[in-house]
């Protein structure tokens, strides 16, 4: 797994912490152990709000974009997360996120 500095800050982790991690280390509840299953997991979550694990133990709710890589046989995926935690706590609705 690779994460840019914005995701690391959003989840409270130091720079490069995600190197060598699996999606299952971040997605709550972890329903995938890594590898191809993690790629499929994120593709299945496209356009939905999921829970991510913050370093301090609380949950960050984020919308997941569709993967930029469109082929089903790609062994990797490239997605964006949009933090919706405050918006949802304030009674707002999650926007549609492609």
Helices and strands in order:
Elements: H1 5-10, E1 27-28, H2 36-44, E2 49-53, E3 59-64, E4 81-83, H3 85-89
Word description of this protein:
The protein is an alpha+beta fold and 98 residues long. The protein has one domain (5-89). It has helices at residues 5-10, 36-44, 85-89, and strands spanning 27-28, 49-53, 59-64, 81-83. It has a four-stranded antiparallel β-sheet. A hairpin with a 5-residue loop joins strand 2 (49-53) and strand 3 (59-64). The model has no long low-confidence stretch (mean pLDDT 77).
Task: Looking at this protein, list some descriptive labels.
98 residues, alpha+beta, 4-stranded antiparallel β-sheet, 3 helices, 4 strands, 16% strand
Quickly describe the structure.
The chain has 98 residues and is α+β, with helices and mostly antiparallel strands. The protein has helices at 5-10, 36-44, 85-89; strands at 27-28, 49-53, 59-64, 81-83. Strands 1-2-3-4 form a 4-stranded antiparallel sheet.
């Amino acid at each position: 797994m690779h994460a840019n500095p914005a995701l690391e800050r959003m989840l409270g982790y130091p720079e490069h912490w995600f190197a060598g991690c699996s999606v299952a280390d971040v997605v709550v509840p972890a329903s995938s152990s890594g590898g191809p299953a993690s790629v499929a997991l994120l593709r299945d979550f496209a356009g939905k709000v999921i829970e991510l694990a913050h370093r301090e133990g609380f949950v960050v709710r984020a919308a997941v974009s569709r993967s930029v890589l469109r082929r089903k046989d790609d062994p990797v995926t490239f997605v964006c997360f949009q933090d919706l935690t405050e918006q949802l706590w304030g009674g707002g609705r999650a926007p549609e996120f492609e």
